[in-house]
Amino acid sequence: MRIGILGTGSVGQTLAGKLLTLGHEVTLGSRTATSSTGTAWAAAAGAKGHSGTFADAADFGEVVINATPGQVALAALEAAGEAALAGKVLVDVSNPLVFGPDGSVTLDPVNTDSVGERIQRRFPEARVVKTLNTLAAPVMVDPARVPGRHNLFVAGDDVEAKGRVTALLESFGWPGADIIDLGGIQAARGMEMLMPFWLGLMKHYGHTDFNYAFQVAD
Amino acid sequence: MRIGILGTGSVGQTLAGKLLTLGHEVTLGSRTATSSTGTAWAAAAGAKGHSGTFADAADFGEVVINATPGQVALAALEAAGEAALAGKVLVDVSNPLVFGPDGSVTLDPVNTDSVGERIQRRFPEARVVKTLNTLAAPVMVDPARVPGRHNLFVAGDDVEAKGRVTALLESFGWPGADIIDLGGIQAARGMEMLMPFWLGLMKHYGHTDFNYAFQVAD
Asked: What is the topology classification, in CATH, of domain A2-205?
């Protein structure tokens, strides 16, 4: 499959690397075609790894992944272009983190809206699926870094799109039974609002190799 | 121990019932001394269960538990009175849920503040510990309703107060190793922001007998 990834940070590169090992072809997009991070990644990635602009990545992908931070996600997708996203599965893995000068971390939007919802509203022809924003990048593509069974979540209005994303996540090593469908894209709100708690746990554990693992009565 | 509980709803009554079975003496407080819920509970509770106003409950308790909803918690504690809370462990189990006319559920405060923090700021002499707001009342006092190991969280600025609350939670049946200390009272923010996600899971599972259970690499 051809996959376009917006964002050349650690999340984008981690997902891109995993997708290459699974045999997919990937274009990693950034603000400019000459991004040194993007071109360096493509040079190391071999024949199936490319870099380009956000628009190049979105045009290229049968599936598009937003791996830019929540604060710039809409601008990156605007640059990608509405036409390039129309009809496509658009996976949003972002969190709307705002880092304050005092070291505080808050969210914007929050509570009455979410990045996932904003993306779906702005690009109604895209089939937005929120997922993977609840854990660290290394665990996203290697669930065995964390012992036992643990959970991923998906939310989106397009059931078929969620099915395709779930299949992709299963190819990463996630058992389908551990992937919880929270319903429509409005559930992105709750998923994004987990982040302050997750950051508290990261401080508590001193690392990011942990994950939500719900225990449930029969 | 003498414990004052503010709030006669299902959370207050569930905690009160458990505390009685553990041999504690409980006063359940509400807005008026003649609250039919409070007096009915006390009549059924036997010699060690009493009802009264918020002030009666706070005066009575060596430990005070806020089991009123987040939207009215500060007013209930104002009615209890600053003097009655000074120096005491004050357990806050509330969530700042706002139920909209359209069926929406949001939080107020959120993101840059929390009920836990507001209570600690307003009553600086109280030793506020946030806990138990992340799960349903029946599971609070009977962790075995949910299979396997699963987690509780505590947050507060007073380390000794957190130790006393942790001991109380252990007496409910929670293994100490499963109770995660998230640090100061500001961590109440992340704990309260779990609620929209938790409500999504409740819809997904169709019941409330589930709980957070973190899996963590060694």
From this structure: Rossmann fold (3.40.50)
Tokens of A207: 């690392």
Helix or strand or coil: residue A15?
A: helix
Residues with Cβ within 8 Å of B115's Cβ and at least 6 positions away in sequence, in order, are: B70, B73, B74, B92, B94, B95, B96, B109, B188, B192
Residue type, B85: L
The neighbouring-strand residues paired with B2 are B25
In whole angstroms, give the CA distance from residue A183 to residue B196. Answer: 13
Closest CA to B134 of B68, B50, B37, B208: B208
Answering whether pTM is above 0.90, one says yes
Note whether ipTM > 0.90 here.
yes
Q: Which helix (H) or strand (E) holds B47?
A: none
Residues recorded for chain A: 218
Q: Cβ of A215 and B146 within 8 Å?
A: yes
Those residues with Cβ within 8 angstroms of residue A89's Cβ, 6 or more apart along the chain or in another chain: A62, A63, A64, A127, A129, A158, A161, A164, A165
From B192, B200, B60, select the one nearest B115 (Cα to Cα).
B192
At A130 the pLDDT is: 99
Q: Would the CB atoms of A211 and B209 count as touching at under 8 Å?
A: no
Q: Which of B135, B214, B218 to mutate to test the interface with A (most CBs of A within 10 A)?
A: B214
Across the interface, whether the CB atoms of B149 and A215 are under 8 A apart is answered yes
